[in-house]
Automatic annotation (TrEMBL):
The lineage of its organism: Bacteria, Pseudomonadati, Bacteroidota, Cytophagia, Cytophagales. This is Xanthine dehydrogenase family protein molybdopterin-binding subunit. It holds the Pfam family MoCoBD_2. One of its GO terms (molecular function) is oxidoreductase activity. Coiled coil: none annotated. SMART domains: Ald_Xan_dh_C.
Length: 702
């Protein structure tokens, strides 16, 4: 960037005002570091910085598409690079919660329009013409009356001297040329010709490779180890005891460092480690769920939400529903296993890798290793999937510790088995749902959930309910269900848990939307009509109209099972309809899935469709194919031979529709997942009369 002469960015003042747009030359006057979102050099080359990770969800496309729209440049002429981790410059850089577009689109549009207006103003001044007679297009400013034309590169010096205008006028959506259009992704070519740099591709001079034998139980310690055989492997340089931070505890292990991945992995296999696993429980899967069910039957939970008196109505009702739903532990199963490069030096620590949260990594490692935050340099690469797992700090911390110990740059390689057995996992949760229907409406609704609370691993208050206890549940239900209670029964195990795609909505959605279906049946109502009657909001009713229309819901035929579910998370709502039937030989099959998303303002419909398709495939796997099980506190499912993923032959036709409105942008990467499992099991009930309340289940045995 040394040659860049026009750099424009924005920062958010600490006192909470809106984002301020500044030029590079002004940044110091404002007492802030320049975040340099946009650079334009004298050749007219535009460089845009992507402040968030690209793990397949489309950030690498969405940010440039937004900037190019208001800046008026051709997207294929824009150079895109990843920004380094730096919260002072870029604000929160966590790629999670489907937050990239919805959290920054207004600032990015304003920033880009400001840059455009400054370039137009510079051209008008040079030509001594009215600014109103000029416009920008394809990286040029054009004078309408004369046809005179100037490349952005010719204008950047003069534009950089101008005052930054305030309150620029943004385009109307009807004027967009790029936003809202199904454009090809900028990273597709890189990922298909092999030039994209993922974490495993990263190499730096003098780099060694490390493979770590970690304790299979999180809280266990290294008692002793015999490395004599490992050190005989050609290429092995060091064998060292190590550890990495996992929330409020540590996982210990022994690292074999070598001059190749092969030598490191062979050395790891040759290690003999004795573990000390005393002082904590070694639970198996059956015991975990037995305890959850018992807790739900015998304990009142911490109150997350209460209105009216549902308990009294349920106690007095002559007829009520009282059922339990169970969801399993899940592994993230990213196609790229964890890995990280770290180079510890006396004056700094530099990290490269597939990292979802570079600013979190900076914060954590700075404190853990007593290094000034600005000396922890975090570089993002492409990620081969993340789903929340790569928003964690453990694997960069481990690589940094090993690099410091051996005095060399290190790449830590995780095998698939490492990735599958170390966790943290999506928590397994059991739900007890009680309800009463009166005159076709819900008169009482009570839910208790027992499962591990991720915030407790982060030091959250254990006398406070899970703050995500209703995640996935549509908020308008709180207006129409007058007697409602949601409680969290505290439940803990030594098994580490964390975020998984759509977080608690992925499990809550199954329980809440399955139970709503059971209440609809109890009321003798059509499931979509029943939901509509309890969702008195115009946007939701339009979404239900669309679901009915595209799926042919009102024209359902005999021997066809139709199920539906509607969930909300990260400011987007998704409704799904699933159709199932039986083949001639009696096997259950999924015929079709229709998904309707209301995410408000959006960038690229192709990206949205890809994300919903991926979410549905992931949800199908979690509902019908795989789970993480434990025996004596150790994960049993170590690779895809037992943690089986859906195959292409398992995937039904999927039709996706996007609602059009002027609402603020919602998330896209995660909201498509929660509605699928309940829509599927509700469809199976509609066809077979069998109610599925435990996931995963085997389609072949229904």
């Amino acid at each position: 960037m040394a040659g860049a002469v026009f750099s424009l960015g924005f920062y958010v003042p600490k006192h909470g005002e809106g984002a301020k747009i500044v030029k590079a030359a002004e940044a110091e006057n404002f007492g802030v570091e320049m975040n340099a979102w946009i650079h334009i050099d004298t050749s007219g080359k535009v460089t845009i910085f992507s402040h968030r990770a690209e793990m397949g969800q489309g950030v690498y496309q969405a940010i440039p598409q937004m900037v190019a729209e208001e800046l008026e440049v051709n997207l294929d002429e824009v150079n895109i690079v990843f920004a380094k981790g730096d919260q002072k410059k870029y604000g929160n850089q966590i790629t999670g919660g489907s937050s990239t577009v919805r959290g920054s689109y207004k600032n990015l549009l304003n920033l880009s329009a400001t840059a455009r207006e400054m370039l137009i103003q510079a051209a008008a001044a040079n030509w001594n013409v009215a600014k109103a007679d000029c416009y920008a297009e394809a990286g040029h400013v054009i004078h309408k009356p004369s046809g005179k034309k100037a490349n952005y590169g010719e204008l950047v010096v003069d534009a950089s001297k101008l005052e930054t205008p305030k309150n620029v006028v943004l385009k109307k959506r009807s004027e967009y040329k790029l936003i809202g259009k199904p454009m090809l992704r900028q990273d597709t070519k890189l990922k298909t010709n092999g030039t994209a740099t993922f974490g495993l591709d990263k190499q730096i001079p003098g780099m060694l490779y490390a493979a770590v034998e970690r304790n299979p139980r999180l809280r266990g310690k290294v008692k002793s180890f015999d490395d004599s055989a490992a050190r005989k492997i050609p290429g092995v340089k060091y064998v060292v005891k190590t550890r990495m931070g996992v929330f409020n505890t540590y996982r210990e292990g022994v690292a074999v460092v070598a001059d190749s991945t092969w030598a490191a992995l062979q050395g790891k296999k040759a290690l003999k480690v004795v573990w000390d696993d005393s002082g904590f429980e070694h639970l198996s899967t059956d015991e975990i769920y037995k305890r959850q069910r018992e807790a739900l039957q015998t304990q009142e939970g911490l109150s997350f939400k209460k209105q009216g008196d549902p308990a009294a109505i349920i106690a007095q009702a002559p007829k009520k529903l009282d059922v339990m739903y169970e969801t399993p532990y899940q592994y993230h199963s990213c196609m790229e296993p964890l890995n990280c490069v770290a180079h510890y030096q006396p004056d700094k620590l530099e990290i490269w890798g597939p990292i979802q949260a570079p600013d979190w990594v900076q914060d954590y490692i700075s404190k853990e290793m007593n290094i000034p935050r600005e000396k922890v340099i975090v570089n993002m690469t492409f990620l081969g999937g993340g789903f929340g797992r790569k928003a964690f700090m453990d694997y960069p911390h481990e690589a940094s510790v090993i690099s410091k110990e051996v005095g060399a740059p290190i790449q830590v390689i995780w095998t698939r088995e490492d990735d599958a057995t170390q966790g943290p996992y999506r928590p397994g949760i059991t739900y007890r749902c009680e309800g009463v229907v009166d005159n076709g409406e819900i008169s009482a609704f009570k839910v208790k959930l027992a499962g591990q609370n991720v915030s407790h691993w982060q030091g959250g208050k254990k006398d406070a309910p899970n703050r995500s206890a209703s995640e996935g549940f549509l908020k308008p239900y709180f207006d129409t269900i007058k007697n409602l209670s949601i409680q969290d029964v505290p439940f803990e195990t030594p098994i580490p848990t964390m975020w998984w795609r759509s977080v608690y909505a992925s499990t809550n959605g199954f329980a809440y939307e399955s139970f709503l279906d059971e209440l609809a049946v109890e009321a003798g109502k059509d499931p979509l009509t029943f939901r509509r009657e309890h969702l008195k909001e115009e946007r939701l009713n339009k979404l239900i109209d669309k679901m009915e229309d595209v799926s042919g819901w009102k024209n359902r035929k005999a021997k066809e099972g139709y199920g539906t579910a509607i969930t909300e998370c990260f400011a987007s709502t998704v409704g799904q309809v699933v159709k199932v039937s039986r083949t001639a030989d009696g096997k259950l099959k999924i015929d079709h899935v229709w998904a309707v998303m209301d995410c408000g303002w959006y960038v690229n419909p192709d990206t949205i469709k890809a994300q919903i398709e991926g979410s549905i495939v992931m949800a199908l796997g979690a509902a019908t194919h795989h789970q993480v099980t434990f025996k004596d506190g150790i994960p049993v499912d170590k690779n895809f031979y037992s943690y089986q993923l859906p195959r292409i032959t398992d995937i039904p036709p999927i039709d996706i529709y996007i609602m059009e409105n002027d609402a603020d942008a919602g998330g896209v990467g995660e909201p498509g997942l929660p509605a699928f499992a309940p829509a599927l099991t509700n469809a199976i009930f509609d066809l077979t009369g069998k109610r599925i309340r435990k996931l995963p289940f085997d389609m072949a045995t229904v």
